[in-house]
Amino acid sequence: MTRRAVLCGVAAAAIALSTPALISTAGAQGKLKVAGVYTVPIEQQWVSRIHTALKAAEARGDIEYVWAESVANTDYERVMRQYAEGGQQLIFGEVFGVERAARTAAKDYPKTAFVMGSSFQPQEPNFSVFDNYIQEPAYLTGMIAGSMTKSNVIGMVGGYPIPEVNRLMNAFMDGAREVNPNVKFMVSFIGSWFDPPKAKEAAFAMIDRGADIMYAERFGVSDAAKERKVLAIGNVINTQPQYPETVVASALWHMEPSVDRAIAAVKAGTYKAEDYGPYSLMKHKGSSLAPLGTFEGKVPEAAMAKVKAREQEIRDGKFTVKVNDGEPKSTM
Fold it and tell me: How much is the pLDDT for 127?
């Protein structure tokens, strides 16, 4: 479905419905009407996890789902309002860069449920927040990277130095240091959520300076690693099928626990503003370490034993990955 088709449908629905939808048990008698508002293409790894979870709920018959992708920041509030006016009962999205506008729109539709990726707190009565709390598997991928590097230099390319990105990078670095105290890092941010060519160039520069493993927080980094025949660590999604000789491991984000919780709450009439971030932790099955796949047997056996032991400790609550939202810095 194209963005144009979605917005045309929303506009038509807005004409037919003059009052905002109510959060009530009415949704339990039929499919819940859910919308997604995304500033980037749905192929972008972060948004793809939200989209995938909502498509799964749609496939189960729980919801009717429409979405708008690549929405400009200047259009974001307008699209939110169109969906709310059009009768959507639950709206997902990411509001980094459009925080004030999104919260203003939500205030005007107190009976519509909003669940938005945000660095800030929930807003009563209807604006919940989430982010990818996947620092635990990120730490584990760092352990793998620290054991695989031969140059002891790891390159890291991110989008923006915001808490959601910083905590993953810092956890990855801590994991690498646990198994390899001599490892050094190069860190760069490209100032974009979706600019593969720019991310690729940043990665090339690090590889030229000796990095033999790249942390691919953005699309484009694994392409550079593949071309230069170095290794990469994935983030949020598993891209090993596309890079079978390059991507060693990935920290995976599963948005299903958060999505399913919000859908159930709206249907039950119990929805309230809350922080959904913790539902991305491993204990809630909101994140995981991807299978090694093509790299099975290629990671040192002793290192994988440590990774598996640490993973079990995390799941058992015996080890806590430090949350550091500060901007990570290069160490060389």
Answer: 98
**Residue 30 DSSP code:** S
Q: Considering the entire predicted model, what is its pTM?
A: 0.86
d(CA 75, CA 86): 16
- What is the Cα–Cα distance from 174 to 307, expressed in whole angstroms? 13
| Spatial separation of the C-alpha atoms in residues 223 and 214, rounded to whole Å | 10
**What letter represents residue 59's amino acid?**
A
What's the Cα-to-Cα distance from 60 to each of 48, 54, 64, 89, rounded to whole Å?
18, 10, 10, 18
Cα radius of gyration rounded to whole Å, the chain: 21
10 pLDDT above the threshold of 80: no
Q: CB-based contacts of 323: which residues, under 8 Å, 6+ apart?
A: 135, 167, 171
Q: What is the per-residue DSSP string for 106-154?
A: HHT-TTSEEEEE-SS--BTTTEEEE----HHHHHHHHHHHHHH-SSSEE
Cα separation of 332 and 187, whole Å?
9
Q: What distance in Å separates the CA atoms of residue 185 and residue 198, rounded to the nearest whole number?
A: 19
CA 70 to chain centre: 16
Hunting for tokens 């539709």 — which residue is that?
A: 109
Check residue 15 and give its pLDDT: 28
Euclidean distance between CA atoms 19 and 127, whole angstroms: 19
Query: Contact 137/251 with Cβ under 8 angstroms?
Result: yes
